[in-house]
Amino acid sequence: MFRLEDYENIIEKCSHCSYCQATCPSYLAERSESYLAKNRLLLIKETLMHERMPYSKRAQEILDLCLLCTNCSQTCSSKLPVVDIIIAARIKARQDSGGLKQFVMGKMLTQRGLTGALGKAGAIVQKMGIANKEMPRLASKSFDKMYSGTYSPAGEVKKRVAYFVGCGTNYIFPDTGEAVVKVLNHNGIEVIIPAGQVCCGIPPLGEGDLEGARTMVKNNIKLFAGLDVDAIVTDCTSCGMMFKEKAAKCFADDDPLQEQIAAVTAKMWEVTDYLQNQGLEVKPGQLNIKWSYHVPCHRGWSPTVKDAPRQLLAQIPNAELRELDNPELCCGGAGTYFMEHREEAGKIRDKRLEDINNTEADAVLTQCPVCRFYIGFQVKDREVTHPIKILARAYGL
Amino acid sequence: MQGLVKDLTGLLGSALVLSQTEEMLAYANDATHYFKSRIPDAVVLPQTTEDVSKVMKYAFTREIPVTPRGAGSGLAGGCTPVHGGIVMDLKRMDHILEIAKNNMTAKVEAGVVLKKFQDQLEKQKLFYPPDPQSASVCTIGGNVATRAGGPRGVKYGTTGNYVTGLEVVLPDGSIINPGGKFVKQSVGYDITHLMTGSEGTLGVITGVNLRLLPLPEANRTIVVVCESLEQAAEIVAEIIARGAIPGMIEFMIKLAITVMNNFFSPPLPTDGEGYLFMYFDGTESQVEYEAKLVTEICHDMKAKEVRLIEDKKAAQTYWTARANVYPLIQTIFQRATTEDITVPRNKLPDLVRAVQAIAAEEGVMIGLAGHAGDGNMHPSVLFSQVTPELLAKAEIAIDRLTRAGLDMGGTISGEHGIGIHKARYLSWELGDIQIELMKRIKQAFDPKGIMNPGKLWLEGGGGNV
After folding, report:
1. In this complex, do A21 and B20 lie within 8 Å of one another by their Cβ atoms?
2. pLDDT (tens digit, 9 = 90+) per residue, B376-401?
3. Rounded to a whole number, what is the distance in Å from the CA of B155 to chain A's nearest CA?
């Protein structure tokens, strides 16, 4: 339920060892301990939790500058749920302020598929004054306008999966979605794309808009819970994390929806992770490509998701992986972070680009659409795309 | 402090000065957050030696306390501003200035993160052994200031053994460069090694010259499960006596293994009481020989299980888990205070027995882990609940432990330093004459007493838990 009071004991478990310095992107960009997970927990404790200090503008700024990337928790010896605590704090801050802080993208993401949603998004973007700066170019036709329903393989149906289409793929990169459908079909897997999907809910949740997130989760869970499928796949690691790790926490333990959430999340896979786990039915053809892998931050929800593209693409003859010095460094995109904190996100990306610019690869691959966009905006001399697209290419699809 | 922030901003510009309470919280503590602490009046983030010098000149004139700080991952309260004033955060001075393979030396700025430096060296098949378990974040300047060590101490020594020169900003802002790029020097007092381990009380270390080694070509990891703690300690003493020099020998109790076990596949059996993690490095034939010898010793001495970890990735998980033991233990207990007693290696079994006896007699839980190979143990008093009664008992237990270690010919700190944590015991080890001498040295470097005041020696009322 992301209630701050539920974390009162857990927050005390921070031993101040400061190991979070090794991977926190906002710390690494600024190198001031103010921006460290350790300090954010201290601030939450002093302000919103125990109210010994006012929740000042500066406190809010420091909390807002967290990218919710989860790197601190992955580094933390005791795996403290820092992101959940920060979400709980943002929810409380939002409630305390009467919920006035509007989540700007909320409307667009809950109304996917409705006429005019994209137009509204455009208007919002204009209002934010960022239209001419670094903004993803929306696809001329969104994925849900092109693909909906059941897509069967040419031969025998070996497995059936449902496909959850995230907003990144739906609005910006429908090419990823096409590759997902084609590659799965090519391997004898039937793909069902239920109509009526909306955003997974991570953007509003990250902004502290619990109600907004709940509406989205409820909608999606109801769509997927009743389906007779072997698995549910997504091409986006952040959507996967939202389903797998956050959806259940948005509701009370005894909420009737919990059972359906458990049923859906048990079947949830990132698509390359699923394919690697199942094994490819059809051997990919040769492809002369050198590629580097930018591992998305939201990888903690599956132990194998970060190795799946490496193992999957290793099966393509002549495709050669050139590991980055630091494949797991955050790019600064982080959902809508790059729109709200342009300068800070830019600094984080600059660090990320140091080794991307040094790689001899032709392509930089990543399963996160925001990373793909945000890195791609600066990397023009090589392709930045989703690993499933490379597999589709190797199949000649 | 009137005008402090304005003055500092004038010196460095506003981007390098922090002063809001929301930011100061982070700088009040190190990893000993349970000790008395207060937030600083300001934090500066110098980027150059000149920046440091400017701030020191100012602080010297105004007699404002200055506490140098690296990662803040220390275990003795060494970098905390107990008298307020300015915290000098050196993490932005993080350039590796030179790696001279032809001279086997390097020069770095104080804020370089140890692991980053070691990764760079490894690419050139070079090796800088000191390995405090916080290597992923701790800074080399902080390592020098605390003479940081780690598991490799048994074979390779600690930070102090690798420092050949320094750049230091003295309290009045003047800059000195004791030592240099050479590996030997016989010129007057050894200021380089006086600054090493001075815990920020004599000046600010801004640059470090280090000696390097070639990267060993091969390694082996062996894990030994022992019936009892004494058995583990005796095995260590025997290994040392037989002339094997492992790169690391880590000693742990069952409790540590239970918290580490989710790192391992398969998990370690938990029916032992003492556990040894050993690492051998050198040439292929050397590690082969030593691993075989040590395996024989362990079998001869009836160890329950001897596991040779062949797979490199699997071996790494044991060392990663080892690096995380202290924070892991902190998550189970409300508090865990870590001691740093180091005894002659043949006394290790005695120390282990003393720890067990004192824990039983005083009625406190004491966890035991440490770098057994060099006699450096980290007994930790574990509090499930911090109560005044338990604190009083713990205080007596730690006093007794410390006394026992000293009686065995040991020292109160092998690698963490004194800070505020061990100030209470300084006179036990050094005696009044040495402390007086040290105070005169302090006076010579820092006549106004502005460098990291409140550290090293007792100012009255110092606790140990």
Report:
1. no
2. 999 999 998 899 999 999 999 999 99
3. 26
Mutate to test the interface with A, among B17, B18, B25 (most CBs of A within 10 A): B25
Per-residue pLDDT of B334-354, as tens digits, reads: 888 889 999 998 899 899 999
Q: In the predicted model, what is the mean pLDDT of residues A356-380? A: 94
Higher pLDDT among residues A137 and A40, named by residue:
A40
DSSP string, B383-448: ESS--HHHHHHHHHHHHHHHHHHHHTT-BSBSSS--TTTTGGGHHHHHHHHHHHHHHHHHHHH-TT
Which positions in chain B touch A62 (Cβ < 8 Å)? 22-23
State which residue of chain B sits closest to A38, comparing Cα positions. Answer: B26
Instruction: List all residues of chain B from 307 to 336 with a beta carbon under 8 Å from chain A.
Output: 324, 326-328, 330-331, 334
- The fold for domain B105-214 equals 3.30.465
What is the set of domains in chain A, with CATH numbers?
A: 4-96 (no CATH), 106-275 (no CATH), 283-394 (3.40.50)
User: Angle B312-323/B325-332 helices, nearest 10 degrees?
Assistant: 50
Give the CATH fold of the B333-407 domain.
Answer: Alpha-Beta Plaits (3.30.70)
Residue A252 above 70 pLDDT? yes
Give residue B360's pLDDT.
Answer: 94
- Checking if the pLDDT of A140 tops 50, the result is yes
ipTM attached to this prediction? 0.91
Eight-class DSSP state of B83: T
Question: Cβ separation of A16 and B27 shorter than 8 Å?
Answer: no
CB contact under 8 A, A22 and B115: yes
Q: Do domains B218-325 and B333-407 have the same CATH topology?
A: yes
Planar angle of CA B425, B155, B101, nearest 5 degrees: 115
> Token digits for A131?
């239209």
Q: For B267-282, how does the pLDDT look when each residue is reduced to its tens digit (9 = 90+)?
A: 999 999 999 999 999 9
CA triple B234-B240-B243, angle to 5 deg: 140
CB-based contact, B73 to chain A, within 8 Å: yes
